[in-house]
C-alpha cells in the first residue's frame, strides 16, 4: 500500500514538528502548514489522505478552513481531524457538525493520536495497527 499523506496545520512550529516526527515514525508521509491559507494552498496543489487542523491560527482559523474545504467539491471528502487546545464540548460538537471526522485535544497522548489517525484512514480495521507493529505498554 502506498504511503499515506498527512497535512498538519498548526501555527506553533514546535507542535507541528513534534507531531510530524510522531506520524512519520509511524510510517506516514507528512507535510506542515502554519495557517489556514497555507493549508488550502497545500490541499489544492497536492493529494493528502488526512488533514490535522488546528483551530486558533492567524489569517484564517481552523473553523473557516474546514468550512472552505467542505465547500470545495474536489475536497469535500478529504478527511479532516480538528487538532486543538480548545477542549470544551461545544467546540468538539461544532467541529464534528462542521464536517470534521474527529477531534483531538492538545496536549495529546501519542498512542491516542496514532489510534485516531489509523481509525480515520482505515475505518475497516477500527484503528488497529498492523500485526507487525509492537504495542506500547500501558
Using only C-alpha atoms, the radius of gyration works out to 14 Å
| Mean pLDDT, all residues | 88
Specify the number of helices: 5
CATH level-4 homologous superfamily: Response regulator
In total, the number of strands is: 5
Question: What would the keywords be for this entry?
Answer:
single chain, 138 residues, alpha/beta, Rossmann fold, 5 helices, disordered C terminus
Could you characterize the architecture of this molecule?
The protein has 138 residues and is of the alpha/beta class. The chain has 5 helices and 5 strands, in the order βαβαβαβαβα. The protein is globular. Strands 2-1-3-4-5 form a 5-stranded parallel sheet, with helices on both faces. Helix 1 (13-25) links the parallel strand 1 and strand 2. It has a single domain (5-125), classed as Rossmann fold, CATH 3.40.50.
Amino acid at each position: 500500500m502506498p504511503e499515506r499523506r498527512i497535512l498538519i496545520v498548526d501555527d506553533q512550529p514546535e507542535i507541528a514538528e513534534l507531531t510530524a516526527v510522531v506520524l512519520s515514525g509511524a510510517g506516514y508521509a507528512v507535510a506542515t502548514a502554519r495557517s489556514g491559507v497555507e493549508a488550502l494552498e497545500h490541499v489544492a496543489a497536492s493529494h493528502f489522505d488526512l488533514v490535522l487542523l488546528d483551530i486558533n491560527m492567524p489569517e484564517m482559523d481552523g473553523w473557516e478552513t474546514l468550512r472552505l474545504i467542505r465547500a470545495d467539491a474536489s475536497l469535500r471528502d478529504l478527511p479532516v481531524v480538528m487538532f486543538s487546545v480548545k477542549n470544551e464540548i461545544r467546540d468538539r460538537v461544532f467541529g464534528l457538525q462542521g464536517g470534521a471526522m474527529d477531534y483531538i485535544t492538545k496536549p495529546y497522548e501519542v498512542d491516542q493520536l496514532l489510534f485516531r489517525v489509523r481509525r480515520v484512514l482505515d475505518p475497516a480495521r477500527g484503528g488497529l495497527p498492523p500485526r507487525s507493529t509492537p504495542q506500547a505498554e500501558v
